[in-house]
Write a structure and sequence with these properties.
S16 Ribosomal Protein, Chain: A; 4 helices; alpha+beta; 177 residues; 64% helix
Length: 177
């Protein structure tokens, strides 16, 4: 029975998330599976991947074949690299301590890269928000200036008409006298 590590689709139309599962290669995509290894949500930036590392590594060492997408996900999380290092240990090319040290170094570099991406996405979002608020405040100030101008024109018109009424009244008083 060919065992595959593959994705099982869940979620709404155009907003899918996936379960990473072990399934018989002949089973349908969303059908029967042997074990759930984790989840993959491509809708977030960066994509959210939760995976049972030890169980996935055990299945890979027992011969499970990942699909292309799952291979990329497992490579991203370091499962394939850990399997590669364990293969070197079993062949005697390096010790378990050296393999663990290499993996920890790789994992720390990967974490730093992911954190950098998360912070850059957050900074970009904050920058866009500031630019939007600045544009909105500029529009608000322009509207406030127009309103102030209109009010000033109305006050000038009312004072001018009041002055005209006063001069007309004084002229009438002078003509009567």
């Amino acid at each position: 029975m060919p065992v595959k590590i593959r994705l099982q689709r869940h979620g709404k139309k155009a907003h899918a998330y996936y379960h990473i599962v072990i399934a018989d290669g002949r089973a349908p995509r969303d059908g029967k599976f042997i074990e759930k290894l984790g989840t993959y949500n491509p809708n977030t930036n960066p994509a959210t991947i939760d995976i049972n590392f030890d169980s996935t590594l055990r299945w890979l060492q027992n011969g499970a074949q990942p699909t292309d997408t799952c291979r990329a996900i497992l490579s991203y999380k370091g499962v394939l690299y850990k399997r590669h290092l364990n293969g070197g240990v079993t062949k005697g090319a390096l010790s378990q301590e050296a393999a663990d040290a290499k993996f920890e170094k790789w994992l720390n570099e990967k974490q730093a890269k992911v954190e950098g991406k998360v912070s850059s996405v957050k900074n970009k979002k904050d920058e866009e928000r500031r630019a939007t608020l600045k544009a909105e405040s500029a529009v608000k100030d322009a509207k406030a200036a127009k309103v102030a101008e209109k009010i000033a024109a109305q006050q000038a018109a009312t004072t001018a008409s009041a002055e005209n009424a006063d001069t007309a009244a004084t002229e009438e008083a002078q003509t009567e006298a």
